[in-house]
Amino acid sequence: MHPIEHLRYVARAHGADPVEVALGAADALAGVSRDPAAALVSARRLVEHHPTNAPLWSVCAHAVTSMDPYRDVDDLTKRIANDSTATNLVDALEGATTICMVGWSGHLVDALARRGDIHALVVDSLGDGQDALRYLSRREVSCELVAPEGMASAAESADATILSALAVGDESVLCAGGSLALAAVAYCVQQPVWMVASEGTRLPSGLFTVMVSGVRDRPDPWASGFDVVSHALITSVFGPTISSGSADTLARMTTCPAADELLRRSVV
Predict the structure, then answer these.
(1) Is the dihedral of CA 42, 61, 172, 20 positive or negative?
(2) Three-state SS at 32
């Protein structure tokens, strides 16, 4: 596929798994890595089309700031593709019988499918919960969809409420809508709140602030479909190199370069 057509394909891949889109972006940017101007314009377009895909933003940040973008993007791609977050979750879920989750998380549904002995209470978020339910059902994992009026009871009854980070900032995490309500209830009833923070989700302050503002700075933030969850509500953190870390582990995760040039809108 021609590099430009590849970039257009990735830019239009809305609704796909964020990790797969990020990997596709890395492959597409590799085709223009020898042309810094083309790489910058392409990266800006990808960021504009995927405003909450932190792994993709991380790939683009490396592509436009590195002295050897092909090598650095390839290294990051390998880390994203070989992310061991699901394996860490499988081990941590030993002894659990019921968990509560919201929306879609590729690493979490993978871990639940690999265990096969845990009942998942799935809260929908912009239709992503339905995707998680279908994935788990096809793999014969016990699961059910939780109505909005049952969210609090689900968080109270589960062994753990497990949220997934779309992007991780210095003091808070951008998550699917409904995450803040679940985390707050679980925190108040003293039930564990786990955060899944996969490879590439940690962003520097500038990029994280712009990402959050892009989806939340509107007259009706309750209709945005996204929540910002404080680190203070989180009990344990799971990532590619983190197994049941404390909440302050999130702030210490490695960030991508602070590529402010990504934030200027392209002219094409």
Answers:
(1) positive
(2) coil
